[in-house]
Write a structure and sequence with these properties.
Blueprint lengths: L2 E6 L5 E2 L10 E7 H29 L7 E7 L6 E7 L4 E6 L2 E6 L5 E5 L5 E7 L2 E6 L4 E5 L6 E6 L4 E7 L4 E6 L4 E6 L3
Antiparallel strand pairs: 1-2, 1-4, 3-15, 5-6, 6-7, 7-8, 9-10, 10-11, 11-12, 13-14, 14-15
Length: about 190
């Protein structure tokens, strides 16, 4: 049976190492992947070096490594593969991409509280600004849903095979990175 496995830190906070995600309805201009690739080549080494230095400094201050343990194993069931998982602590829900649907679980108990169907080729999931977003790789769309009712409220065209989703709080945008091309679809999370 398929299942989800969560870790818990010393403070009891559950985590599934989920991706970031948020919400939006209207498509904004598409940005070229090449620009992101160039930016990554320039900034990634710098950010990685700064991150490693910060981690090393933090490790020197802390004598023990974080105490993680398996907190729960939740049977989910069903057919098909799995991809991204989003733990939304604000709503107390876990969103798990599952082949052609998103399984929604209670974060505290692991019980299934609903399903968002008809999301063929589901990959990334984001919740932001009162909306949820799901990348549907087989239909080249991003489904927008209401996190309270779990009903799809809109379907937005994306580039070829949208995959990972990322919410940027600074710009209030959701980025759908298109696996089948050199583009990212950019959505306004507030509308």
């Amino acid at each position: 049976l398929p299942f989800l496995c969560f870790v818990e830190d010393a403070n009891g906070r559950k985590d599934c190492r989920a991706t970031l995600a948020m919400t939006t309805r209207h498509q904004v201009p598409t940005i070229k992947y090449q620009a992101l690739k160039t930016m990554n080549r320039l900034l990634l080494p710098l950010l990685l070096g700064a991150s490693c230095a910060a981690e090393a400094q933090s490790a020197l201050k802390t004598s023990a490594a974080p105490d993680y343990r398996v907190a729960a194993i939740w049977p989910v069931g069903g057919e098909g593969g799995w991809d991204y998982i989003l733990a939304d602590h604000a709503s107390g829900r876990v969103y798990a991409s599952h082949a052609t649907q998103v399984d929604v679980l209670d974060l505290a108990t692991g019980h299934k509280v609903g399903v968002i169907p008809n999301t063929a080729g589901v990959h990334g999931i984001v919740v932001a600004q009162g909306h949820g977003f799901i990348s549907c790789g087989q239909t080249n769309t991003v489904a927008v849903f209401d996190p309270k009712t779990l009903q799809v409220t809109a379907t937005v065209p994306a580039g070829a095979r949208p995959d990972a989703l990322l919410y940027d709080a600074f710009s209030n945008r959701v980025f759908a990175f298109n696996n089948g091309g050199t583009t990212a679809t950019v959505l306004d999370a507030a509308t």
